[in-house]
Amino acid sequence: MGAANMIRNPAEYPILGILLRGPMHGYDMCRQLGEGIGSIWRLGKSQIYALLAKLEREGLVTRERVGQENLPAKNIFSLTPRGREVFKAWATNPVRHMRQMRLEFLTKLWFARQLGANSERDLIRDQLSQCQEQVQRLETSKQSCGTEIEARCLEFRVVTIRAAISWLEGLSEAMGGVSDRR
Question: Radius of gyration of the chain from Cα atoms?
Fold first, then answer.
């Protein structure tokens, strides 16, 4: 299975994404991630360094040891073309499950602004579509519920997704986009 197709630890993507800004050492990554997505996702230094080692083994980042005058050498990490491809594939696709909205979608939204003028709008549009499709599937499933608890569970999921749809439509409208309420 290629690096672009394998199931990845979601915490790898912010590391790949921050390296879109250019080569940097681990301390700078920690600082920039904390300043950028720290209110969404807190990645610890040891976690970042462990994931950098894994990403390097997989060929998604490279490491160069750079000497410093009167200081120990430091490792500078860079994104490889394959790493860029893996990140962009993740960052431009909507999340599939509501449980991923809190960390992954909000992180994608933050990075979307750095990917280009239309990336944020496209991501919101695609996520809206994904959520609307989920509501339709669940509404259809509710018709064949065998128990009351099963119907309540599905209704809870529908209400949760509709709340996300409302929020996404608000984002879209604030950006001057046209929402497609269903």
Answer: 20
CB 4 within 8 A of CB 84: no
Distance CA 54, CA 110 (A): 24
Indicate the helix (H) or strand (E) that contains 24.
strand 24-25
The residues spanned by each domain of the chain are: 12-91, 112-174
Taking residues 139-168, report their average pLDDT.
93
CATH value of 12-91 in 1.10.10.10, 3.20.20.80, 3.40.47.10, 3.30.70.1650: 1.10.10.10
For helices 106-115 and 119-142, the axis angle rounded to 10 degrees is 150
Q: What is the pLDDT of residues 42-84, one digit of tens each?
A: 999 999 999 999 999 999 999 998 877 888 878 999 999 999 9
* pLDDT for residue 171: 93
106-115 vs 81-91: helix crossing angle, rounded to 10: 120
CB 119 within 8 A of CB 60: no
For 20-28, what is the mean pLDDT?
94
Please provide the distance, in angstroms rounded to a whole number, between the alpha carbons at the two ends of the chain: 38
Q: What is the pLDDT of residues 75-132, one digit of tens each?
A: 999 999 999 999 999 999 999 999 999 999 999 999 998 887 799 999 999 999 999 9
